[in-house]
Amino acid sequence: MQDTKLKIIDFIRRNRVSTTEVADCLGKTGVLENVMPINRGHFKVGNVKWVYAHAESNWDVHEQIISTEENDVVFIEAFDCKHRAIIGELVCKYILLYKQASAIICNAKFRDAGALLRENYPIWCTGFTPVGCFNTKPAVALDSDIIEKSKSKYDGAIAVCDDCGVVIIPKEFHTEEFYQKLVHIEEQEDIWFNRLDHYKENTFEIVCLKKYLKK
Fold first, then answer.
1. Whose CA, among 8, 32, 126, 137, lies 20 to 30 Å from 52?
2. Overall pTM > 0.90
3. Beta carbons of 79 and 146 less than 8 angstroms apart
């Protein structure tokens, strides 16, 4: 399965398979809701390194990102952090430059917007706020069942990130069958635009009726 996973990542990267196409291959699922790029024009795909923040603290984030591997997409999942920023410029620089991660994604806000925009970092999150998390250890640890459930779902998955957002390919889809779906949808896109540009068919004929299959 690991070889197939690497093959999927390589195909998506080389062909710049969009999040739109990947979500279609997943049955129009897989999106991280409300997570959008802070800088335009980045396209990233890679293994998900899942870490978490909770109870308005980023203590666990600082501890967990130490084991980030080169080319990982670091996904910071926030639990009960209210509207606080999870991290800012310092941590982003450490993850992206010193740990050589491919990208950072998060289901919460970041701070230090000016620096993150100026550096054109490949970051996907839900927005900005100047009010950050505390860097003290939470009094109560995050529930182990929550950790187990999210880690099983996200850690080792594949993240695809572009201007449209972030789509996660779960581990159960790291198969030859899913790889062939990606190949097929790329071929289909070529056909559809060819029918539109050169045959002047309308989109109802192309997408719904699929007239090209009858010719």
1. 8
2. yes
3. yes
